[in-house]
Automatic annotation (TrEMBL):
Modified residues (FMN phosphoryl threonine): 178
An example Gene Ontology molecular-function term: FMN binding
Family to which this protein belongs: Belongs to the RnfG family.
Keyword Membrane: yes
Domain of life: Bacteria
Pfam families listed in its UniProt record: FMN_bind (PF04205)
PANTHER family xrefs: ION-TRANSLOCATING OXIDOREDUCTASE COMPLEX SUBUNIT G (PTHR36118:SF1)
Keywords: Cell inner membrane, Cell membrane, Electron transport, Flavoprotein, FMN, Membrane, Phosphoprotein, Translocase, Transmembrane, Transmembrane helix, Transport
Name this protein carries in UniProt: Ion-translocating oxidoreductase complex subunit G
Keyword Isomerase: no
Top enzyme category: translocase
Length: 223
């Protein structure tokens, strides 16, 4: 074997060993950190839930007790996570990941908590692309507008007033940005209608189940 070939083989072997060592290091790091990463993700999800779901409303793990719901006509996405809160074994609230698809600049993602009696516990925006200084007033950090849903329910206000004020409803719009609050109001109302119609099935399903609902709000129910 000539010297050049020997050097090439030696270099190749060294590269292979270095690759194996790097792979082993990555595998070891992942094994050491995966539990901490999972714990951090769990804490982040719980913190998001606690924004809309008061801690005294549950004594279970709502995230572990979640289901997947396919009800795009109601919740605005092909698949939505619904976390279920229970207190002393009894259903106390649902926390739904909802999308308002008709925002001014695109879909608006929401987290909506609904108590077992159909009352809104809280609503928060989790992602949006609305215009800064106008549509972004849906953020709790910019105004208290989003907090106006807490304590509301179907019938409070009456169905005809689940709209922004410009459309004859109870909820104020923003100067120069009516489409954004209109989309959020409609999404919250559809969510309450969904819970009223399908909440029992969602609460009764086993943890991790996937439920599909192909129906939609009736035309008369549209905001």
């Amino acid at each position: 074997m000539n010297e050049g070939l020997r050097e090439s083989l030696r270099a190749g072997a060294q590269l292979a060993l270095a690759g194996l060592a790097a792979a082993a290091l990555l595998a070891g790091t992942w094994a050491l950190t995966r539990d901490r990463i999972a714990d951090a993700e769990q804490r982040a999800k719980l913190q998001a839930l606690e924004i809309v779901l008061p801690p005294d409303r549950y004594d279970n793990d709502p995230i572990a007790d979640a289901v997947q719901v396919r009800a795009p006509a109601w919740l605005g996405s092909e698949s939505a996570t619904v976390s279920r809160a229970r207190l002393a074994g009894a259903p106390s609230a649902l926390v739904l990941e909802v999308v308002a698809p008709d925002g001014y600049a695109g879909p608006i993602k929401l987290l909506i908590a609904v108590a077992a009696d159909g009352t809104v516990l809280g609503v928060r925006v989790t992602a949006h692309q609305e215009t800064p200084g106008l549509g972004d007033n849906i953020e709790a950090g910019r105004s208290d507008w989003i907090t106006r849903f807490a304590g509301r329910a179907l019938g409070d206000p009456p169905a005809s007033r689940w709209q922004v004020q410009r459309d004859g409803g109870d909820f104020p719009q923003f100067a120069g940005a009516t489409l954004t609050p209109r989309a959020v109001v409609a999404a919250v109302r559809r969510t309450l209608q969904f819970v009223a119609r399908h909440g029992d099935a969602v609460r009764a399903a086993g943890p991790g189940a996937t439920l599909s609902f192909d129906d939609a709000p009736a035309p008369d129910d549209a905001p």
